[in-house]
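Milestone M4 deliverable, item 7.
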Amino acid sequence: MNNFIKIGLASLVLASCSKTENQLFDKLSPDESKVTFVNQLDESKNISILDYLYYYNGGGVALGDINNDGLVDIYFTSNQGKNKLYLNKGENKFEDISTKAGVEGESDWNTGSIMADVNGDGYLDIYVCAVVGINGFEGHNELYINNKDNTFTESATEYGLDLDNFSTSAAFLDYDNDGDLDMYLLNHAVHSEASYGKAEIRNKRSYETGDKLFQNNNGHFVDVSEKAGIFGGANGYGLGVAVSDFNLDGNPDIYVCNDFHEDDYYYLNNGDGTFTESMKNYFGHTSRFSMGVDAADINHDGFPDLMTLDMLPEDETDLKSSAGDDNPQMLKYRTEKLGYHFQYTRNMLQINQGGKHFTETALLSGVAATDWSWSTLFADYDQDGEQDIFVCNGIPKRPNDLDYIKYYSNSSIKTKLNSTKLLDKQALKKMPSANVSNYVFQGSKDLQFKNRSNDWIENDSIISNGGAYADLDNDGDLDIVTNNLNSVASIYINKTNEKANFLKIKLQFGGKNTFGVGAKVISYAKGQKQFKDIQTTRGFQSSSEPIAHFGYGKITQVDSIQIIWPDKTIQTLNKVKTNQTITVQASKNRKPFNYATLHPRILPIFKKSTTNLGIDFIHQENDFVDFTAQKLIPYQRSDRGPASVIGDLNNDGKEDIFFGGSQGKQAAIYLQNGNGFAKKSFSSIVADSIYEDASAVITDFNGDRQNDLFVASGSGQYAANLIPRLYQGSTLIKSNLPETKGMNASVIRTIDYDKDGDLDIFIGNNSKSNSFGRMPDCYLLNNNKGVFTITQSATFAGIGMVTDALVSDFNKDGNLDLIVVGEWMKPKFFANTKGNFKEVTDSLLSGNHNGLWQSITSFDIDQDGDQDYLLGNWGMNSKFKSSKEFPMKMYYDDFDTNGTFETIVAIEKKGNYYTTMGLDELVEEFSGMLKKKFNNYKSFAGKKVDEIFDVAMLEKATLYEVHDLKSGYLRNDNGKFTFIPFSNKMQVGPITSFVKLDFDGDGKDEVFAAGNYFGVTPYHSRFDGFSGALIKNQKTIYLGNQIGIDLSQKAVRHLDIIPFNGKKYLLVTVNNKKAEVYELPKNKN
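Output delivered:
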């Protein structure tokens, strides 16, 4: 062997050893552990995914100390074989005691496995779920009662839990707070005529498929589902269940993941034995094919957050060859006609906002795409004080492969598959495998997770379904066990050991809830709060050890531990040393606990007006969908209304309101009176309902001491309707304006740029007619006693896709300047010198700062005495991706030379650029160009943008770029500006509007920001989680749930201050919803 080969081999060995040594987890060898369980599917039984859609869902794993010897034992379920129980003998050695323990099971198809002390004797029992009554499967759910001698007695019939349903999993909880454990049974539907249709199907109970809630009545479980308000319809595809006290009222709530078209369920416990399903009120959107779920507090606010799993691939080839989201029309039909909520094909990370609502951040947090994912487990695996995430992955065959779907869609093939098994093998061969490695993410501050899959665990191609965690080797850190399909189960031994400190807390509650299920354990150390809710059911079809585990990094002593017991009493431990396991018995002297003390104090900044001041305006968006006209645009343009503006329209000294209408819908004017506002009709306004009103101003343009109304039109639907209008005087008589060539307006600003005493107009335009990507002109209109003419055209021609503008003397020369922001452009500064504007951006703001900017306002955020500028951008919770090094790109041209222009958007992955659109969308637009080139999805998947389209064609196109998607502010450094991004809580969606006022009565102005936007394809999912924020300074920003306002699930277009009867109110104008008015209790006017 020559020296080069020797050196090369040695390097490989060293690299391999080094990587293994640096891994957080070691995978325990079956030879060492003696755990040889395999959940093997038996092909000879003549059943496949073509017969049973959940054929590949795998089995569960339950972890718990069954003999109270201090060592955690392992129980696996096998779909078609025998279940196995392994007794922990210490030092990572296990003994198979399944046969003598009597827990191997008799059902034909087993699924979930849960450990809980069902009879309250201090020993963990085992509940095993089964699928019965389909494909000839026989049996029933089994309950193994612990005999305290390493044997069990199957007792499901005795306890009333011998269900013969299509069961997935179960959760034991004390929902009625009577001291014993009740049970929620999670069942799943199969595709049938009964499972399709309107959402109200969930109200008609189905015995086999509907979920069930059982109340424990002295050891016998009684079905109370209907009385308790639990849905049980034929459309309940239940795959995951999580129990936690989400609103911190002392009563356990339930979150259920449903596959396919059915919504997830969010059951809030009313405390009287009933639940209220509240999904639509608390969640803006959810996973579409929801599978595993877990709950934990990831941001240290003491409220449980949620993660649900779906099957969005990270890999570009798998992504482009797999079916994903609905098209916009189908989503609209499902939500508006069938009554379902908004669902999207990706993982969701739902951040609990003080129990009031959830903000979804998976894209922002970096955990949205983990492919075909089953179980998610929150825990602090590296013991640094932050919650990490482990995800179980993989499926032997992808039934959502687009080429397979195309094959199956052939009517003759479908008929044969449904009537005979002759084509089954051929059909199964058409499905590619999805042997994807498990994922693990390291948690950090500011809602961020780092993918550590390549360096924390061994990458392999096993398929893991159920997963659970426990400290198997009693070294303090948490180990992980997965139930693998057709492979030996995996045991991941955590090697954190002495590298970071921990605390494990076991509870002894007494009564029938011996392990304290439902108790909360709260740790306070060095100013950081950690919250744990004692539950066993976690992830997918599995249960974890019933303990509270905390990581502390280098901290050696915890300031205090609060234990809130299930009976709403509290017990406190002070100055607790780390690196130990504590067993805490419920003290006889524990005190009653008031759950209100866990809730943050709400600053009384905003209070919803009970009367809305008589304003009953409801904006109605029209039915036009931009994607039908321009299929490949990245987002819509026609839904940026309504305009709103405050001003005195009838010369009575009181401020009135103009609300714009969408195309075909009437605008509305509300005149102020002594009791509030009353709507008044004006014939000139009614006659112009063909226009869509994007922006408006009220002021006296012609010097007659009567205010006029100037309205700009936007929409993008018809060029003929894109003209600004001027209505003069108290009767709003329409006047003429100069021709503006069908520009799609977004903003109007008044500015006396020439200092002649009257107000001139700047009109910012976002696009030209209905051609998104065609650079529009903006206009400066000079006012001469109410007569307007366009001036300085060259300066404002083609400056960008403008969304907002601000009048501000940014150079302090005494002249009013303009700052203009927009999409696919950099914020632009126009300096006014003696009435002439000149762009001076590069001298004030260096570097690449193109964004999808939405809004701007002035505010001295760093309180240094000069004007900074707040900028609302798209945010980071998006599939859009941009950076200085790899900007997002949009090509614009008539690529197929058919007279219409198209856009092609591309984002970077691993140094290469890929289209955001899939083959179907691209072929629909470029049929002649692409249909022959890519005759199947496999040939297209994974292709870079310059492999799909000719490079010369792309180089010829107009190229737009975005370098930054974060909202933030331009910090004024002696007249030069530096962009500073906000923290991630401000990046959850587009920020579309600002308003400035002294909201909290401290004598200083603050800025209130709002946003959200829904005009995107289902590929992106709605941006609906921003509740609003009060910006006091660069360090202090309060979210809406902290200050008495919640604007989540509302696409806010404008914020205005209304003076009424000596007080000021906030007016929130919302797209496609009712306008809202808020009192400002602390404002001192």
